[in-house]
Amino acid sequence: MKTTPADIHILIVEDDLASRSLLVSYFENAGYRVSETDNADHLAERIDQDAVDLVLLDISLPGKDGLTVTRELRANSAVGIILVTSKGDEIDRIVGLELGADDYVTKPFNPRELLVRAKNLLWRMFIADTAKRNGESRSQMIYSFEGWQLDPYKRQLTSPEGHHERLPEGEFKLLQTLVNHPGQVLSRDQLMDAIHDREWTPNDRSVDVLIGRLRRKLGDNPSNPQLILTAHGAGYMFAGNTGS
Amino acid sequence: MKTTPADIHILIVEDDLASRSLLVSYFENAGYRVSETDNADHLAERIDQDAVDLVLLDISLPGKDGLTVTRELRANSAVGIILVTSKGDEIDRIVGLELGADDYVTKPFNPRELLVRAKNLLWRMFIADTAKRNGESRSQMIYSFEGWQLDPYKRQLTSPEGHHERLPEGEFKLLQTLVNHPGQVLSRDQLMDAIHDREWTPNDRSVDVLIGRLRRKLGDNPSNPQLILTAHGAGYMFAGNTGS
DNA sequence: CTCAGATGTAACAGAATGTAAAAAGGACTT
DNA sequence: AAGTCCTTTTTACATTCTGTTACATCTGAG
């Protein structure tokens, strides 16, 4: 399993040209390697051959039943499957999930939302993969730095003294993103992207506020921060020693 | 076991002509080979002779008790059985499943839903068949997490201390959906889909109320939940360790 | 050193969530 | 029918979270 977008191969199965092009360009802009097709013939083989990591599957393809396709894929492969369904297909959606799809979006969908779901799924696949590799259960996949521990599964922060605290959604995602890129300056743009499905405008201070809240919870003195450093004019950087 | 619709033989046992015709045409349109009957006489023999793969059985046939029929069928055959029950027969429904039926639908049902359930069951049968039927299928369908157990047939929740409790339909489906997707944030939209066919409007709090009831029954402190986490602005997520 | 722009943060307002309790269904019973 | 029991949905209000604003402080180019 890969972690950088360029290494991740996404296959878009959609018969409508307009929708397909939209999706392709959207995911290409996000940096992924994208393939496309307008039919589900020999899908399993193609996925296997081309080392596809994630499939976006329009469930109402002409000729073939999307649910059957889902089954066939899941039966032989651990590929990520996101179904694209129409407004009225509640049952298909539910059964689709039961049959092994990982997620779905409903047409008409917001491309941003789809991208977020795709990222989330890829992340879950990555976690599951590494956990499996190490023979661990999911909950043991824990970030640790400077005596602190961050449990991404329960979204809980544990201090060196052993005090547990549940982090709010935004703070958790921000800290997770920082910890995932130690020693790397992340722009507010990037951080905003990781936290939310939202644009960043030059006067937006919400990232700064979240950073402040995190620093306080981490006991990090802002005038001499040890964990979350400020890169003036650029963004923020996590400087803790991971794995300690 | 076959995989293409034309090879699959479905028998519809239903005394009401209108319902029966509807079902027959619906499944024929889906490409299956369909037979029909208005009584359950010599059902086992007929199924055996005609190589029936799946039976849709109206539980309230005149003369014969659908439950008895179910037991007889299951005793001698691995045929797929989907019960068609009336609205009020909750007890019959559960007993039917315990006697060996594979699934049920409630009248008045959506033909589409029945078709999807039938496909789903045929697929499960195919899987079970190829997997050589090792281990009983029933116990594998029990969800377990953190000492809790959830029995989908009885809709029963068992605490780590062994205390049983029947869950209402909505709470059960919600919990089942969450448990089926551990670590994944599910939007209220998705959860609403899973509970029943209904749109979610921004001011709809019914999902939240159900979540609250589940948390109380699971002993999950909402201000520091361990099992059902809140993803502010996004939805809810199950964070228990499944399979333990 | 100065100063414009960038960052830190308290405080507030608006939005989202938790939840008790009332209202509204639904199905069975009398 | 009316009543009862169970479940679901709505309502209302308390609580929590998030983003904005305002102002204090800091940084670094010049």
Automatic annotation (TrEMBL), chains A, B:
Coiled-coil segments on the chain, per record: none
Residue ranges of domain OmpR/PhoB-type in the record: 140-240
Q: Which SUPFAM superfamilies match?
A: C-terminal effector domain of the bipartite response regulators, CheY-like
Give me the positions annotated for DNA binding: 140-240
- Which positions carry 4-aspartylphosphate? D58
Which InterPro entries does this UniProt record tie to the protein? CheY-like_superfamily, OmpR/PhoB-type_DNA-bd, Sig_transdc_resp-reg_C-effctor, Sig_transdc_resp-reg_receiver, WalR-like, WH-like_DNA-bd_sf
> SMART domains per the record?
REC, Trans_reg_C
Q: Where is the Response regulatory domain?
A: 9-122
Q: Which CDD domains match?
A: trans_reg_C
Keywords (alphabetical) are: DNA-binding, Phosphoprotein
User: Sorted alphabetically, which Pfam families does this protein's record hold?
Assistant: Response_reg, Trans_reg_C
List, alphabetically, the PANTHER family matched. Answer: REGULATOR OF RPOS, TORCAD OPERON TRANSCRIPTIONAL REGULATORY PROTEIN TORR
Q: What is this protein called?
A: Two-component system, OmpR family, torCAD operon response regulator TorR
Organism (species): Marinobacterium sediminicola
Lineage of this protein's species? Bacteria, Pseudomonadati, Pseudomonadota, Gammaproteobacteria, Oceanospirillales
